[in-house]
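Working notes for the structural subgroup meeting. M.R. asked for a predicted model of this chain before we commit to crystallization trials. I am recording the input and output together here so anyone reviewing the notebook later can reproduce the run.

Input as submitted:
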Amino acid sequence: MKKINAYTLMEVTIAMLLSAICISICYTAYGIIGNYYAKFKQKNQTANTVLALRQVLARDFLKSKLIIHHEDGLELQQDGLSIYYNFSPETIQRRLNEEHTDTFSLKYHDLRYTFEGREIMVADTIDQLNFKIILDSLTTVPVQFNKKYSAENLFK
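Returned structure, recorded in token form:
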């Protein structure tokens, strides 16, 4: 009788068990890396949004002749152009006349409008805007924008 070379049932079972352990380790590692990447991507998107908002607001403040606080946000008056910023709890919207709207999905708090160091509560001219952007549960970024007016712009 000729002996057949083959694996025993015990050897096959152990090989399958080791394969299952390797697959479960790889799947767990893939899940951890996937979660890390998703958080990293979200942080980068938030950082890009914050940088874009800061850049646009700084440029608008610089180019504006007059900045007026209204009950729902700001009106920045430039040469023949008005830019409106509306602050809602989850977003900041920048509206250029009725033609174009940019939406920045950011949470913020401590929104303050001031003129010459005094906080403005009613519709009036402002020279400083302060608020804090909430990045996550532990991190906030303070943001401040200032406008230096010429005497000509204030007395119009």
